[in-house]
Structure formats: C-alpha cells, structure tokens
Model the fold of this input.
Amino acid sequence: MGFRVAVVGATGNVGREMLNILAERDFPADEVIAIASRKSIGQTVGYGEKELKVVALDTFDFSDVDIALFSAGSSVSKEYGPKAAKQGAVVIDNSSYFRMDPDVPLVVPEVNPHHLAKYKKKNIIANPNCSTAQMLVALKPLHDAAKIKRVVVSTYQSVSGAGNQAMDELFSQTRAIFVNDPIVKEKFTKQIAFNVIPHIDVFMDDGYTKEEWKMVAETHKMLDPDIKLTATAVRVPVFVGHAEALNIEFEKPLTDVQARKILREAPGCLVVDKREDGGYITPVECVGDFATFISRIRKDDTVENGLNIWVVSDNLRKGAALNAVQIAESLVNQGLLTAKA
Done:
C-alpha cells in the first residue's frame, strides 16, 4: 500500500519543486494532494504527467494523510502544522518555526538520519535553512574524519531563497537598467540587479543577521555543539543556486587529497575540482540537480589543519524540497512510518 501525501504551499517555488521531486524519485504515493490558500482554489499544479487541482488549507482534513510536506511560511506552519500532526499526518516543515524546538528533530538525511526516531513527540520534523543544509552535507564526512574545530563561511545566496517576489524584482530591475527606467526596490533594501547585499533576514542585537545565526544554531543542533562557526550571508543577483566559501579548521591533520577522496565517497556530494579554467561548479550549473557540488578544495596554510572549499547547490532542491522528500524517504526506509490502512 502506498502513502497519501499532502503538499502545503503547492503553488509556491518550493511547493512546486516538492511535487516535481516526489514524481522524479518515484516516491511510493498512492495519492498526492496539492494544498494552498483559498485564493489559489481553481489553479492546477504539475505532478509528473498529472495536473492536480489545488484545494484550500483552511478546510482540509489531514486525518487520512500519511505525510504532509509544508512550505507555506512560518505563520502557516505555526497555525496548521500542529493541527495536521494531531490529525495523524507526519509533518515535514520547511519553515523556520519548529527548527529550534527541542522536541522536533531537525534533519538532513546525509548528516543525522538517526534523529528521525524522535519525531513522534510532536509528529513534526523540521527542514533546516537552505544554506545550512548544503553546508552540512559537505562538512559531515570531513567532521567524521578529522573533527572540525571552527568554520568561517561566506554565502552567496540566490534571490529565489526570498521567494517569487524577489525573483521578479531581480528581473524587473535588470530590465529597468537596460531600458533606463527607474529602479524600484520593494523586496530588498538595496538594488539587487548588478549588486550584492550583505543582509539576509532581520538584524539581531549583536550585529549578525538571523540568517547567519541560523547557520550557527542549526549546525550545533544537527552536527556538533562544539563547532565554532561564524557566517556572513550575502544575497547575489542569481535566480537559483546558493554558493558558499568555507574555511575549515580541524583538530587532526587532513590533506586536500584526503578531503577530496572522502567527499567523493560521501552521500549527496559530487566533487568537481580540476585546477584549471572552468574546473569548478557555479550556481547556473547546479540548477535542477540533486547533488551538493564541491570544488576548489585546497589547503589553508594560515592555520594549523586548515582547508578551504567551495560548495554549490540548488537551494530550491537540496536546500528545501529535496531534503523534505529525502526525510520522507528516510522515514519509510528506516521503518519509522507505514501507510495508513
């Protein structure tokens, strides 16, 4: 018997990717339901070769649903996530609302799949921040090999991480520059076209942004609370695909050759690292792919046991939709979830 899967926020960027990935990976679903706000009733979304009619969230009954993939924002998850969980659906939530809840596992399947067994406390599992997810896929095998002491990360995050309006703003500002129209700023605090903005999410009292804080807190919850991590999160004029420059300091020696071999064998990682023109991966090349790409693996001689790496991934996939589907697959593969009769 297959599963009954609901996708909440099915008309958004990530919701549509969830539907695509469920179909691409042939997830064992007998039925998939597309759910969104009432204003989306009448719309259709693609699921493989099928078109699904969107149904309204506020009147939907989750009691016959096995898995509910949520990607509709924190306010929606706050209100409807616990309702769906109490009605018997396992909620896999892509928002930030449940990530720091001690009774909710925060999971990247390549990093901490053993945490999934704790989901029954609230029937909710949290998906991490997009920038944290791809970073930890790369860090986990290296941490297992030589134990990470400290990480300095700078992110180069695409506008799709901020939603449809952000993508529209990059397009409209780029067009305005070419035709000499006024630059309109609505989603971002500064012009994003032909620019970079060192500001993602709200500022905190210590001067870091919440996006940067998330990378620290989520790394501690999922990988190791003893890792020291500092982040600078930057929005760049790219539509899809996040890139990160990571400087890593280890407790034990680890050469670039050893790291390259470890990462080539690690789940979810794909090493493209030729020391020549074009011998690395950029965001444009990662779009639509499941992998976390790693390039520019090299020794850092300024610290003892230091390495630098470049990490790129499709943020709508591994950073959100793919990770959520992989969590569902892990639940099934570990025997933690069976379809309702």
Q: What stands out?
A: The two ends are 8 Å apart (CA to CA). The chain has a mean pLDDT of 96. The first strand starts at residue 3 and ends at 8.
